[in-house]
């Protein structure tokens, strides 16, 4: 796959503050936040999008969800957040390196699921 900005960030080639990191993923603030809290969980493995992940990625995908919960606690938004994965251009994906969005800090009950991320 083609390299992306998230490839450069996860490899440390673009200096970026990591809110959390481990051997499998990093967590950064979104550069154009769509909510008061908007962070991205990015696996170090450059899977282009969820729809091309396979069984080999199962443990990693589970890990990303566990990290999402931990980071939500770390940020104090564990009672009210939304997790979003945009898949494919038509699904609103702009960076083709799989990532999860955590959105919180505004009313998450109104509107469509991907509000603010289209
Ligand atoms: P997507 O639309 O692919 O689901 O989400 C990509 C997200 O990455 C967008 O919310 C966008 O604001 C964010 N983003 C794009 N480039 C950068 C960057 O260089 N740094 C950071 N921190 N976020 C970025």
UniProtKB/TrEMBL annotation:
Domain of life according to the entry: Bacteria
- Residues annotated as domain HIT: 5-115
Alphabetical list of Pfam families matching this protein: HIT
**Record's protein name:** Histidine triad nucleotide-binding protein
Task: Kindly state the positions of the motif Histidine triad motif in this protein.
Answer: 97-101
